[in-house]
Design a protein that fits this description.
Number of helices: 0
Number of strands: 11
Helix content: under 10%
Structural class: mainly beta
Order of helices and strands: EEEEEEEEEEE
Shape: globular
Radius of gyration: 13 Å
């Protein structure tokens, strides 16, 4: 059983930056691909970004490409989401998720992930 704890959320003005962290415990971190999601109207959860188990491949949702960067430190069992040029529409609870390494990983689908954190609130003021 993997436990995920997000941190780093807060209130920031439009155009500002935040870095979210997600610390994992209870499993071998390098056995998991990792992702970030947020709620969106009409969707269960909107895909934000993902990174494969060794950091060699990264993926981004269209709405955050060029502004957000996902990274991981397997020695620290932590995945990060650097968010720059934030917009009011980025306001949401951001959830970290872990997907056990397997073939056919659904990178952008919330059903492709096995474990979820409790979320951290990001609020962007205009």
């Amino acid at each position: 059983q993997v436990q995920l704890v997000e941190s780093g959320g807060g209130l920031v003005q439009a155009g500002g930056s935040l870095r979210l962290s997600c610390a994992a415990s209870g499993g071998t971190f390098s056995m998991y691909n990792m992702g970030w999601f947020r709620p969106a109207p009409g969707k269960e959860r909107e895909f934000v970004a993902a990174i494969n188990w060794n950091g060699g491949s990264t993926y981004y949702g269209d709405s955050v490409k060029g502004r957000f960067t996902i990274s991981r430190d397997n020695a620290k069992n932590t995945v990060y989401l650097q968010m720059n040029s934030l917009k009011p529409e980025d306001t949401a609870v951001y959830y970290c998720a872990a997907a056990l390494r397997r073939s056919g990983w659904d990178v952008a689908g919330s059903h492709g992930y096995d474990y979820w954190g409790q979320g951290t609130q990001v609020t962007v003021s205009s």
